[in-house]
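Design request, tokens follow.
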């Protein structure tokens, strides 16, 4: 199991008390290599606190914009202690980048105010592909791992 991206301030022993909680991951299908790297990081974390991959429900949505609807559906089921949303938006020549990114932050923020299962948003918003690689298991760590830790943490509040 990879621990090379583990943040130094992580209290893994404390987070192990989330091992009896129920989690779901909602992830986008755009930029699949980046998404898979983020998912690997997230599952690395969950394994470290004693939750195997097959205990976590995963819902795929077409793009990051649909993370809002996917999270809404999952949240409405009231089956989960916390939800992790994973997406990757990479700046291109189109203004889609800013509209999609802002919409996702706004939409997930709104869902987080309804008092149901909290949603942690792991949305990479990078200028180019290399930056996304760097943050999904590269030189800047793995945000999937970090956000999975945040998901466990919020489930304990
Ligand atoms: C359309 C689009 C573009 C240009 N770029 C991305 C991206 O970098 N990452 C991502 O997750 N999704 C992208 N999409 C797709 C939108 O999220 C959405 O799926 C479509 O606009 C359909 O609603």
């Amino acid at each position: 199991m990879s621990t090379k991206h583990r943040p130094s301030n992580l209290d893994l022993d404390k987070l192990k008390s989330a091992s009896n909680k129920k989690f779901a991951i909602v992830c986008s299908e755009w930029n699949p290599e980046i998404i898979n790297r983020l998912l690997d990081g997230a599952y690395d974390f969950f394994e470290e606190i004693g939750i195997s991959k097959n205990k976590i429900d995963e819902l795929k949505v077409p793009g990051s914009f649909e993370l809002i609807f996917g999270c809404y559906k999952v949240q409405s089921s009231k089956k989960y202690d916390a939800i992790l949303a994973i997406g990757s938006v990479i700046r291109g020549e189109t203004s889609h980048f800013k509209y999609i990114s802002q919409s996702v932050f706004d939409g997930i923020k709104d869902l987080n105010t309804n008092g149901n299962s909290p949603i942690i948003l792991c949305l990479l918003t990078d200028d180019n592909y290399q930056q996304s690689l760097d943050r999904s298991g590269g030189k800047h760590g793995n945000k999937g791992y970090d956000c999975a830790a945040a998901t466990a943490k919020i489930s304990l509040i």
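Comment from the thread starter after seeing the answer: thanks! The mean pLDDT is 95.
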